[in-house]
Design goal:
Oligomer: single chain
Strand content: 25-35%
Keywords: Carbohydrate metabolism, Hydrolase, Metal-binding
EC number: 3.5.1.25
CATH architecture: Alpha-Beta Barrel
Shape: globular
Helix content: 25-40%
Radius of gyration: 19 Å
GO molecular function: N-acetylglucosamine-6-phosphate deacetylase activity
Family: Belongs to the metallo-dependent hydrolases superfamily. NagA family.
Enzyme class: hydrolase
């Protein structure tokens, strides 16, 4: 017998008060006037920028990616990309080796790790943010080497660096989504990169040249021309007004956590790649005071989006459908027959009650 859940179901065509039947995939949706309307059933969250959680960092390699995927599953995240930091080639390879094993088979109770977001080292030393200064220019040979260890789905680079503009179409041919991030480039350089095949922007507003009405910068290029961009909706990285402007300007803006090892942990010191970060009052910073990733979870991201005025369906799209579309996954990020049974059930306060990942009912601790 298939499993089933009842409530107010968000489908691609809108809300349905009814029942969903599923195995690994969604089987059927049925109207049911007696379904509990206080429960909202949304597509599982798709987080394309995750460094860590539960006290561990993906750069530590080994089984840390599994631990991270298990921690985020508790908050309704059903799909993640394991995200690297700028580091030495040996350190990046070590992280990728751990990720490769986790990608090959989903462990019970964990979010599906679909691949890698390679955030460094192909970035600008002028816009490091919380990345260490171990940057270098990318070559196709180097990217192919990393890609052979674990599948790269998203790659962040600074397009103004030597050779990067010519590399973008080659990476696109490999099926890698290239994002502008940690960049000191101009509006014009951003536009040229978009025309060359850049797909999106890494944590929009953070780690890039800001918008000025005389010099629009990378933020201006994104707001004027992008279809997709990441945003960290922890209400610390970006002001709510800027968040709303971006959501209004960019048709398929999607939200990420940029979560670190500090996610789900008490205040204290944690690793972020080779660096030590401090979690205090929900914020993660370097010793210098600079923001260093976040302690955000996707269920809190949803509540934050609703708190600044988005309706629940629009907020859900930013956390599920848009990132799935970005990766070209028509069977993720939506509730429809044939799609993976990735589901999150929320109560009237938008607190997680049930999580289903590829048909598995995840035990919530």
């Amino acid at each position: 017998m298939p499993n089933s859940l009842s409530g107010r179901i968000l489908t691609p065509g809108g809300w349905l008060l009814g029942r969903i039947e599923f195995a690994e995939h969604v089987l059927n949706l049925y109207p049911d006037a007696d379904a509990p309307s206080e429960l909202s059933i949304l597509p599982g969250f798709v987080d394309l920028h995750v460094h860590g959680g539960a006290g561990v960092d993906i750069m530590q390699g080994g089984d840390t990616a599994v631990q991270v995927a298990r921690a985020h599953a508790q908050h309704g995240t059903t799909v993640i990309l394991g995200t690297t930091m700028t580091a030495s080639p040996a350190a990046i390879e070590h992280a990728l080796e751990g990720l490769a094993e986790a990608i090959s088979q989903r462990a019970p109770g964990t979010a599906r790790i679909l691949g890698v977001h390679l955030e460094g080292p192909f970035i600008s030393e002028k816009r490091l943010g919380a990345q260490p200064n171990l940057v270098c220019s990318a070559t196709l040979e180097q990217v192919l080497h990393y890609h052979s260890i674990a599948p790269i789905k998203v790659l962040t680079l600074a397009p103004e660096l030597s050779g990067h503009l010519a590399l973008i179409p080659q990476l696109k041919e490999l099926g890698i989504r290239v994002q502008i991030g940690h960049s000191a480039g101009s509006y014009e350089e951003g536009l040229a990169a978009l025309q060359a095949g850049v797909a999106g922007f890494t944590h929009l507003f953070n780690g890039m040249t800001p918008l000025n009405h005389y010099q629009p910068g990378m933020v201006g290029a994104a707001l004027a021309h992008a279809e997709y961009a990441e945003l960290i909706p922890d209400l610390q990285h970006v002001h709510p007004g800027a968040m709303r402007a971006a959501i209004r300007a960019i048709p398929k803006l999607f939200c990420v956590t940029d979560a670190t090892a500090a996610t789900g942990m008490p205040d204290g010191e944690y690793a972020l790649g080779s660096q030590t970060v401090m979690k205090c009052l929900g914020c993660v910073r370097l010793a210098s005071g600079s923001l260093a990733g976040s302690a955000l979870t996707m269920d809190q991201a949803l509540r934050n989006l609703v708190s600044i005025g988005l309706d629940l369906a629009a907020a859900s799209n930013c956390l599920s459908r848009h990132p799935a579309d970005y990766l070209g996954l028509p069977d993720r990020g939506r509730i429809a027959p044939g799609a993976w049974a990735d589901l999150v059930v929320l109560d009237a306060d938008l607190q997680v009650q049930t999580v289903v990942i590829e048909g598995e009912l995840v035990s919530l601790v």
